[in-house]
Amino acid sequence: MSLILHPRVAPSDPAHRLRVWVGAFDRTTAPALTWKLDGQPSTPDAIRPIASVRKGSLLDGDPPRAFSGLYEFTNLQPDMTYRVTAKADQEEAGLTTWTLPAEVPFDLGESFNVLLVSCFHRDEDREGQAGEVVAALKAQWKPDLTLLMGDQVYLDLPTLQNFDDKLVWLADKFERDYMLNWRGPTGYAKVLAAAPSVSLPDDHEFWNNYPHSSPFIQNSHTDAGRDRWKRASIALYEGFQLNDPAMSGAPIRIDVPPLSFCLADTRTFRDDYPLRHSLDPKRGLDGFNEWVRHVRDDTYPNAERLDNKFFGVFVAGQSLLSPAAPGLKGSIGDRELANYDDFPQIIRGLEQLLQTGRAVLCITGDVHWGRVARGNNRDGRTVLYEVISSPSSLVTTVGADTFKKIGGFFGGLFGKRDPWPRHADAPDAPEFLAQDVLGRAIECKTIHTQKGNHVALLSFRKTGFGLELYITYFPIHSEIRQPVELKQIDLKPQ
Amino acid sequence: MLKILRSDAAGKNPRFRKAPRKPKEDNLAWLARNLPSDSKLSSLVLIGGRSPCSFRLRVAQSHLRDDLTPSHWSHALLLGKGSDKLSDRSTYEISLEPAIGFGYPPAANAVQEGKLSAYRDKQQYPNIAVIEVPVAVAKLEKHLQKFQSQRAVLDALELLVAWLAYVWGVGRAANPLMDGMGIPSAAMIEVVVGAAEYELTPGLASRSSCPEAIWQSALWWYEYYEKAKHQRLSGSWCVDHKIL
User: What is the pTM of this model?
Assistant: First the structure.
């Protein structure tokens, strides 16, 4: 199959619009597409008309390659399922997807479900378990929306491969990596098909520790090498994952009242040195501040509900709770958001929301373990929750993995078989949120830790004047399939 | 001590007033005088009983009180639609002492439908309060119906069994409130009222609801409702029996 459709979120009006990513592979020209919506001919808006993912200096000649585009159907009904088909030449592709609800539901037994997925290394999931687990989510667990929170591809792997330091070679290699995950019909493509999705990049959409030099990646040791890699990887990110080319760098805002999501790209626009920005200096911080104002001040239309203010959900590729990586660790491992000069501005923005009496939810991936933590203010009121879901398929670490697997094997001989020999245990949350910025204003406590490959589902239902939230972790393991359901969290305005 | 937020209000809710019992007045007569006048809005009733089961429930809720004394309340129930005779007014509840036994409670997620006359006796139930909840009766009944087939939302049977074990002193059964398990009837009411877009206990996790939390909400949290631009809880109460 060379024609592929995946559902994406239409951020501006997700209850009345459907966005579709279309990919056509192994071609030399962009196909002419004809569309149908629920069996009727339709002409969606071209958000980004289908075109070659690789262009100009990323191409040598006219090889068969990937073409992609973004299209949007408008004037639809909220929370409604639609069948979309696209035809190119003699090939037809289809998907069944849905608009988001106009609001989080109140009705008992209903919920607005958000699937959290991050850190997927295809080579460690050759059986396609992640896709199978996600595709099996039915009934009350059916996701309405999927947040892809970084490392949807590992472009810098395999570690021991010699990467040619040429733009065309890199772009070709990255395109093949993306096609393996996006093409389907099995594997990660099932995750992409599960619900309308929206992506954030993390370092492996580029290379380990991007934009900084990584000791294990020779191409990153020179300015010119990093620039070539960056150009190639950004082109592929734009072709496969970027939700809105016109808004690159600005946080993506999605409102499903009373929830307002802000997805901030804290990776693409990072400074190498000095560490000034994690957000895009042109659009990132302004967009974030505008979202803070929106959540703090705006109301959503609802005739019956008088206290119709938003609850903020901040999504980033890394945790806001993680303290800055010290110098030495930062040069070998990754920098944290707290390492960058714009971190205090992000925290000060969130602080405004913490004072509204409506708890803020922070969501991220990145760290290769799952964790739920809460933050209480000095009055003892919970003003912040953080949910981490990572990984869906743990990346290979050459050498160390073999050692850990051997340890797990011998442990099994003595009756202590570790189902996750390569995975780390989640550490407790730091004692305070951003102590360098807020002092000891927000005290953090770990509620739950989750080890191993998984995805997580957040189920929201309006109740009273607020929301209730159920968090469920779904292990991705051949033998462990029992979901881990956490106790309900009340998000009540105070 | 259970984690319950305290209201910032300086005084008690003036619209939740003390209404002493008249001589020889039973609970139905007291309710007849104090039932809210707007029959389209929902009402709930708090009951404080004297039975051993009620005693255990009242003591269990002392952890929600600053002075750790037992609660005045052991039970909460929803009033159904009006009837010509108050004694025939239907009630929706999850009682730990149902007059006609439990039957097979899974079929209705433990919800029992009864008559208000069951709580007539002022000796057995000396404490009584009626609270008007500013939610239309029809809206509440719609969610109540759904609740009975939605154990996934709140498994009231799990609460029922846990509380029966506690009040009967089975094995080492501990106070379920300490595990965030509300008293079944109050927890049911909390979920149903919440689904009807009203917040019954702002200071407590919804699943931990109990009569004492509802009482504190009506008495102290009225400023919260006004800040949220919602009508506050109102009503009347009569406490003739204090354990301490």
Answer: 0.91
